[in-house]
Design brief:
Belongs to the UPF0312 family. Pfam families: YceI. InterPro entries: Lipid/polyisoprenoid-bd_YceI, TTHA0802/YceI-like_sf. The protein starts with a strand and ends with a strand. The protein is elongated and about 60 Å long. Strands 1-4-5-7-8-9-10-11 form an 8-stranded antiparallel barrel. It has 1 helix and 11 strands; from the N terminus they run ββββββαβββββ.
Length: about 180
């Protein structure tokens, strides 16, 4: 089977993250606006081309003050760097519908190669006859690698915001 174009179904997809807060708990958030260009054979992703774009202004941690701080120059600086992008460069099968997806991730004007785990969850037709596929994506990045270094030292030791950001995507796409 050859690669086919797929359109992300943003209503049935999510881009989520979590990060350590005060070195004792995780804070979770999401990005509510994102899009992807996917050309793939879902049964064999090794030849896929994937480009993913996230609107950083759409960050949502359920706290408006924190979200505004994340949009500011202390973090994402959305005025100068409005998007986060990912472009695949290599995909390797690990068997059992799992893949290592490597690509160029750009945040805050800095591009680094990152690898994420992708699981092909399956395919099917929705009630209207549209062919759909599902994937989960998991991984982690160091925010300091992208110049996101704002922090505050705690009086008890440690820092307010962790460096490791866990990333989790649930993606549903429709054949375009």
């Amino acid at each position: 089977m050859t690669n086919t174009k797929w359109a992300i179904d943003s209503v049935h997809s999510s881009v989520d993250f979590s990060i350590k807060h005060m070195m004792i708990a995780n804070v979770k958030g999401s990005f509510n606006k994102f899009d992807a260009v996917i050309e793939a054979n879902p049964a064999d992703l090794t030849t896929a081309n994937i480009e993913f774009t996230v609107d950083l202004a759409s960050v949502d941690t359920r706290n408006e003050d924190r979200d505004n701080h994340l949009r500011s120059a202390d973090f994402f600086d959305v005025e100068n760097h409005p998007t986060m992008t990912f472009k695949s460069t290599k995909i390797v099968s690990n068997g059992d519908n799992e893949y290592d997806l490597t690509g160029d991730l750009t945040i805050h004007g800095v591009t680094k190669s990152e690898t994420f785990t992708v699981t092909y969850e399956g395919s099917g037709k929705d009630p209207w006859g549209n062919e759909k596929v599902g994937f989960t994506v998991d991984g982690a990045v160091k925010r300091s690698d992208y110049g996101l270094t704002w922090n505050s030292v705690l009086e008890t030791g440690g820092v307010l915001v962790g460096d490791k950001v866990k990333i989790s995507l649930d993606v549903q796409a429709a054949k375009a």
